[in-house]
């Protein structure tokens, strides 16, 4: 699925535990630094956040086995930054049927979509490969 990668694990992590695990094992020189927080003011919960583009970032979180999840896993997903969310909100303002405004609106949508499916997706895949590697080295991969 574009924009989301799942890594089955043999344990779950709290956001703080995942952050600490990454502090101990993540290659910050090769794969960038990260922070623990919320991508936007409207986000629920804490995530480890990695940079992707000006409009998008990659969030990392853990899910425990339970009602909504069949297995323990670490999830990496592309999410909008606060700036990206504000741009999306601005795009939803009615243009009043003006053809030029409609063209500008479509242009913005396409470039944001290309951003998500291009560079942000590339960052997600690189981060996922590295996360899988460090989870494996620590003995936390399920398979």
Structure notes:
44% of the residues lie in helices and 20% in strands. The protein has 143 residues and is α+β, with helices and mostly antiparallel strands. The chain has one domain (4-137). Strand 3 (47-51) and strand 4 (56-63) form a beta hairpin. Helix 4 packs parallel to helix 5. The longest helix has 19 residues, at 99-117.
Structural key phrases:
44% helix, alpha+beta, 143 residues
Topology of helices and strands:
Blueprint: E1 4-8, H1 15-25, H2 28-31, E2 35-37, E3 47-51, E4 56-63, E5 73-80, H3 82-91, H4 99-117, H5 119-137
Antiparallel strand pairs: 1-5, 2-3, 3-4, 4-5
Gist?
The chain has 143 residues and is an alpha+beta fold.
How far from one another are the termini? 20 Å
How would you characterize the largest beta sheet? 5 strands, antiparallel
Q: How do the helices and strands follow one another from N- to C-terminus?
A: EHHEEEEHHH
Helicity, as a percent range: 40-55%
Radius of gyration: 17 Å
